[in-house]
Structures are given as C-alpha cells and as structure tokens.
C-alpha cells in the first residue's frame, strides 16, 4: 500500500520500540486482541466515565453527550454536590496548551452551545460553569462576557492570558489534501501521567472508521514513584473487540509512535492509516489518509 502525499507532507520513519514494527511503511503495534462487547464504563454515571472520553464525547457531541452533560450538571447543582468535574471537562475541551490539539471542525458548534448556556441558562450556576468552555475562545461577545461582573476573576484572567498569547502559539499550518487530514500538537503535556487516551481519540477522528471507538490506559503509579520508568498499557475498544499494547513512559510526553501503532492495528483490515509527519517548529503532526 502507498500513501500519496505532496512533498511538503513528508512522513517521518522513527526508530521503533520493540513492541512496534513497520508494516507496508506504516507503524503498527504488536497487540493482544480479545473480545469485549463494550468498554467497562459504558452505561456508567457521567462522573464515572474516564476524563478523556468525557471531554472527547462532549467536544464532538457523541452519544448526545452535551444533553447528558447538562442534565448531570443540573442534577449535581440541585443536590448541592461539587461541580469541579464539570468545570474541568469544559476547560479541557479543545485546549491548545499542555499537549492539546486546539480547534477542529467541531469547535464552533461547541462554543455556540457553551455561549448559549453562559448567556441564557435559567440557573446562575450553569451560566458560571459554562464560562469554562469559552476560556480563550475567539467568538463575538466572549471578551465582553469575561469582562462582566459575573465572571470569576481567576477564570477571566485565564481567558485574557490565552487571548493575549494567541498570536504567539504558532501551530503547524502545512496543507491538508483532498485525501488526508492533519492535526498538530505538542508532544509534551506538562503533567504525568501523559493522557494517551486523549491523543488516541484525536487520531481516531482523522479516519472515518473509528468515530465510535473508545480508548483508555493503565498508567504507571507516579504518585508512588515520580521517577518510575514503567510502561503504560493502552487499550482500544471497537466493533466488539479490545486491542491492548504497551506504550513507552516518556515522563510528561506522549508516546506518539505507540498511539499511532495502536490505531493502525485497529485499522489493519481497512484502507486507512495514520502516520507522523516530519516535525515542524517542535509541533508533532499526524496525518490520516486512505492508502487506496
């Protein structure tokens, strides 16, 4: 199989860990595949869904997550329960810092949804929590919203800082093609454990076959040993199967080749693949395209 790309979209061929290999020019992971009807959290309460899954489903409104999220937020507020989880999830959606991928084709609709809540919801607590989704957003009326008296000062300050630094956050702008899509992100996340499931969801979004896939990880215990070099275990759930592979512990950075390798293992019987592009300006780039 070959992937035809313009010269400016040159693929990079990394030196691979022993659990990875090249297959027709693409990185693929050595995986253990088993039957799994669904990921273990399917059907759980919203607060029990893994953070990366919750953020992704809210971003793209998969499984009607925005309606579920709002209903759970209202229920928690009515019961006087803590709302930190809801603020955190909204603040992490489409983040550009700490290894984030930034805006996608879904961002505008997400921001319109959040803006409607922040300006028109009946509950003040819902309006306040919705502001977290708009931190750094470039949307008419948002700056004025954060300048208002109802915006918490720490949230308003984060918005001002992100808006002021937007011009300095150069992202990879290499062109996409009719048969490919590209994302750019910083491989360094700034925290441990590195959130590989978030990256796996981004990679899955590059190809049409995996929009219903789910991902999770078993991370090393950094609380017990901050310097541990033990590997991660990555898991993908799709079409009634679970794929499991290792990922190298790079501290606060993603193991990008292992994430690419796991996605390509799940895509093995399809014409689609993902591959890393040569880095530009320290941004990691991954392309998803058909090999036909």
The number of strands is: 9
Question: How large is the share of residues in beta strands?
Answer: 15-25%
Sheet with most strands: 4 strands, antiparallel
- Helix share, percent: 25-40%
Q: Based on CA inertia axes, which overall geometry fits?
A: globular
| Helix-strand topology string | EEEHHHHHHHEHEEEHEE
- Count of helical regions: 9
Mean pLDDT: 88
Low-confidence parts = 4-8, 170-179
Class from helix and strand fractions: alpha+beta
Give the spatial strand order of the biggest sheet: 3-7-6-5
Radius of gyration equals 20 Å
Descriptive overview:
- The protein is of the alpha+beta class and 292 residues long.
- It has 2 domains: 138 residues, no CATH class; 123 residues, no CATH class.
- Helix content is 32%, strand content 18%.
- The protein has 9 helices and 9 strands.
- The strands form 3 sheets. The chain has a 4-stranded antiparallel beta sheet with strand order 3-7-6-5, with helices on one face. A 3-stranded antiparallel beta sheet has the order 4-9-8, with helices on one face. The protein has a two-stranded antiparallel sheet with strand order 1-2.
- A hairpin with a 2-residue loop joins strand 8 and strand 9.
- Helix 1 runs parallel beside helix 8, helix 4 runs antiparallel to helix 5 and helix 8 crosses helix 9.
- The longest helix has 14 residues.
- The chain is globular.
- About 5% of the residues have low confidence.
